[in-house]
């Protein structure tokens, strides 16, 4: 068993997950990166000896045993950040795609937490990465909107379920980040509205009070900040990182 405390990062091979994994490793944690592609995991772990691979499918219950075997130490933090398919707008999205998105986001978070339950300690953090569309519904991002809204509810439930043990649950809800996934969303919106992808991206930037997308390094910074003991006060919270996109209160 490693003497280092462990962080488990689901979606560790994605554009966001890689940055998060490296940030947590730099903070002194042994990081278990979870992903479906063993090849992608190998390229990530080869670059940092503090990152280890766990190849499994978080959409299936078999992931529970796989993660439990890999996270063989005190688990200080779990980060659930898998992507879901961009399957179009609410008028055209296949219902099966919506079900798959909820299974990956909500079911996946439950599998992750159940895998490490016995290794959580007072001060451990359960962190899910949601998104802007879970709180600002649109007609063109059905899977992200529905799944992330459900994830927000699950985060609050986990907060109450684990609070007595001094374990806190958090949802990080970034605004659009300039990644390949954002460009797929922009492409779907462009096709719907008869615009170019670049026009859509510029429009999306103007939706921010500061005219910016959220960066993956900013998201990783926020997640690493939750390691601080003062983050107990954020139990059950949703941390909006949307560069000033939300207009509603609260």
UniProtKB/TrEMBL annotation:
InterPro entries: NAD(P)-bd_dom_sf, SDR_DHRS6-like, SDR_fam. Gene3D superfamilies: NAD(P)-binding Rossmann-like Domain (3.40.50.720). GO terms for molecular function: oxidoreductase activity. Keywords: Oxidoreductase. The keyword Protein biosynthesis does not apply. It holds the Pfam family adh_short_C2. It comes from the Bacteria. Belongs to the short-chain dehydrogenases/reductases (SDR) family. This is Putative short chain dehydrogenase. It comes from uncultured bacterium UPO41.
